[in-house]
Design goal:
The complex is a heterodimer of chains A (about 600) and B (about 170). Chain A is α/β, with parallel strands linked by helices and about 600 residues long. In chain A, about 35% of the residues lie in helices and about 15% in strands. Chain A contains 20 helices and 22 strands. In chain A, α3 packs parallel to α4, α9 packs parallel to α12 and α10 packs antiparallel against α13. With about 170 residues, chain B is of the alpha+beta class. In chain B, β2 and β3 form a beta hairpin. The structure holds thiamine diphosphate and magnesium ion (MG). Magnesium ion binds next to loops of chain A.
Amino acid sequence: MLKDQDKSPASGGTHPSSTNLTEVNADTEMLSGGDMVARALEEEGVEFIFGYPGGAVLHIYDALHRHPKVPHILVRHEQAATHAADGYARSTGKTGVVLVTSGPGATNAITGIATAYMDSIPMVVISGQVQSHLIGEDAFQETDMIGISRPVVKHSFLVKRTEDIPRIIKTAFYLAGSGRPGPVVVDIPKDITAPSYKAPFDYPAEIALRSYTPAEKGHSGQIRKAVELLLRAKKPIFYAGGGVIQGNASAALTALVRHLNFPITNTLMGLGAYPGSDRQFVGMLGMHGTYEANNAMHESDVILAVGARFDDRVTNTISKFCPQATIIHIDVDPASISKTVISHLPIVGPALPVLEEMLTQIKDIEAQPGIANQVDTEALDQWWKKIEGWRQTHGLYTANRFDDTSEHIKPQEVVQLLHRLTEGKAFVTSDVGQHQMFAAQYYLFDYPRQWINSGGLGTMGFGLPSAMGVKLAHPDSIVACITGEGSIQMCIQELSTCKQYDLPILIVNLNNGYLGMVKQWQDMQYESRYSQSVYQDSLPDFVKLAEAYGHVGIKITDKSQLHDQLQTAIEISKDKVVFVDVYVDPHEHVYPMQIAPDGAMNDMYLSKTERT
Amino acid sequence: MPASDSNNISRRIVSLLMENSPGALSRVIGLFSQRGYNIETLTVAPTDDISLSRLTLITLCDDQTIEQITKQLNKLIDVVKLVDLTEGEHIERELMLIKIRASGEAREEIKRTADIFRAQIVDVTSSLYTIQLIGTQQKIDAFIEAVKDSNVIEVVRSGVSGIARGEKVLSL
Ligand SMILES: Cc1ncc(C[n+]2csc(CCOP(=O)(O)OP(=O)(O)O)c2C)c(N)n1
Ligand SMILES: [Mg+2]
C-alpha cells in the first residue's frame, strides 16, 4: 500500500544519478528504467503490447528484446496501435497497452486515445519523451504529450525519476481499469530508461490514492427507492449502455430485466449487454434506433438508465426528451448523472453490485403479501401490447423495412446474412458510417463484448486495427470487420500487420462508392449536393490490394451469389485474412432516423418517403 | 427535464485541495476551457502541508453548471477535496496593489480615500502612491470606483481566497 508521503512531488527534475536512494533491500533487483518498464508490464500480466519504435523508446525496446514474455505487436501506424489495444480491451475487459515514441509517434496515437476516452476503455499508453534536460527546448521529436493528451485522458504522468517507474506504472494500470475506466498516458523521457542507471525495482502490490476512491457499491436507500418506482411503473423501460458491458454486469442486468418482464433498449455502446435476439429487447435507441425503442422511451413513465449517458445521439432535443418519465440513473461516474438530462433518482455505483442488489430487494419486497408489492402485470400487459403494435407497424425485426426485392445487394441483408452464417457468434468490429449503423441494427448481438465500435468519437479507421486486437485475444473466434470503402482506407496499412502476425480477420466492406453517411445527410439536408463524398472511379481494386498484402480478396457484385460467396469467405477466414468487397446499393439510407433539430425521441423518418 | 435550463446565474466560490504536483493546475484550468466553464478569478498556493495546494476560483454560472463543475473537478485525479464556499457562511478576501499618480491636491485626497477604506500606502515617491487594500471583491471594486477620477497607473489584484466560517474546514 502506498503511503501518503510517497505521493509528495518527486524531487523535481533532478537527474536520476544525482538522487540519493532510500535503503535498498538486499534482494531487491537493480534494474534500468527500460527493464523496469518491461518488468512492470510483466507484473501486470500484460498479454500484448501494441506499438511502434522510435528514438525516445529505444531503451525500452531493447529491454523488451530481453523480456520476450510480453509479446509486442508491431503495427504500421501508431493510431492502429491504440485501436488494436482498444479492441483487445473491449473484447476482454482487460487493459490495453500501447508503446509509442515521442513527437509524431505520440501525436499519431492521439486519435486512438481520444477514441478510448470517449468510450471509457481501459488503456495504458507509454510514450517516449526527449531527454529530461531537453524538454522545453523544441528538441528533435519533442511534443508536449501531457499537454496534448490532457483533454482525452483519465490521467497522465510525466516520469521524472527512474525510481518512480514501478509506482507510476502500477498507478496507471489501477486508474485505467478502475471506476469509470479510461486511457492513462505515461510519458517517459529517454534518459530515465537509459541502461547506464539502475535503481531498485520493487513493484507495489497495491495502490491507494487519497484523491481517488471510486464507488464500490450503490446506496441501498437509493436502490430501495428505485425498486419502489420500478414496481409501481406502468410503462417502464430499461435503457442500458456501455457501462453495463464495461462493468461486467450483463448477466445481472439480464436477470433483472427477465425477472421484471420489462422492455429493454440498448445504446450503440450497450449492444450485447442484453441479448439482442430476446423478446424483451426492443432494439437500439437514438438517432438510428428502432421505431419501437424510441417510441417506448418517449411514452415511458419510468426509465431505468444504467451505464448510459444520455448522449445527444440518443436524446434528440433535450427539452422534448421523454416528457412523462421519471428517470433513475445508475452510473459509476457521478459526473455522468444529470449532465444533460436531469435524473430524478441518481444511484452512484458500479452497475454490477447495484443491479444485483436491485434484484435482491425486489425479490424481498415481492415475498411480502399485497399487490402494492408486485409489478402491475395488467399495466405491463397493456404496455407490451403497445410495443408489439409498434413492432408490427414499423419494427426492424418483424419485416424487412428495406426493399429486399431490389436487384441491388442491400447492405442490411449482407449483415443479416453474416449474422446467420456466423450463427450470431462472431466478434464484429466496425468503422463509422452507414455500414456501422446497419451492423448495429442487423447483427443482433447476444453477448457482451461482441460488438466493438467507436461510439463516442466515431473514428473512421477503427475497424481493422481493433479487429486485430480482438483476434489476438480470441484466436478461435470469427472476427469480422464490417466497414466501408471510405473508412477502411484510413487504416488499410494494417493488412500488413495482419500478415506478420497471422491474424485471419474477415473484412466485409460494404462498398457503396460513397462516404455514405455523408451522402445520406446531403440527400436529406442539402438537396443531394454531394460535396466531396464521391470517389468516382478512384477506388482501389480491393481484391488485388488484399492479394498484394498476401491475403485473399473476394468481390461480390451479384446478389444471387451473395450467400455462397460470403459462406466461402467465412470458411477461408478461418485461417486467412479475407477481404470481401461487396458492392451494395449506393443509394440506400439508414432508417429510422430521428428528425433533428427540434425533434423528440419519437420523431423519425422511417424511409425516404415516410415519417412519423 | 433538461439540465441547464435555468437562467439564474450566480457567483460561486469553489475552493479545493489538490496534489501539489506538476500538471495538476493545468488539469483544473484545462477542464474549464475544455468544457466552456467560466473563471473570474483564480488563486493557488501550497498549504501548510506542502504536498497539497489550495486553489480558489470564482465562476459565474447557474445551479446545474456548478453541479457539473464540482463533479468534473472532483473527477480529476489530482483533486483531493472540494467545497463550494458560497453554499454556506464564509469569509472571502482579495488583495489589491494599486499605483496612483498622486501630486498636488490629489495627493491628500487619495490619502484620505485610502484611510476611509483602511487601505495602506505601502510605497511612496514624490509623485506616486502604491496602495494595498485587502477586502472583499466588492470593497476593492468600490475603492477603484472611488479613485477612478485620479490617475490610476497600475492595478494588481490577487483574486479571491476564501474560507468557511466556524467549525467547517476543508482539510484531509
Ligand atoms: C476520422 C473521421 N473523419 C470523418 C468522419 C465523418 N464521417 C462519418 S461517416 C463518414 C463516411 C464514411 O464512409 P464509409 O466508410 O464509406 O461508410 P458508409 O457510410 O459509406 O457506409 C464520414 C466521412 C469520421 N467519422 N471520422
Ligand atoms: Mg461508403
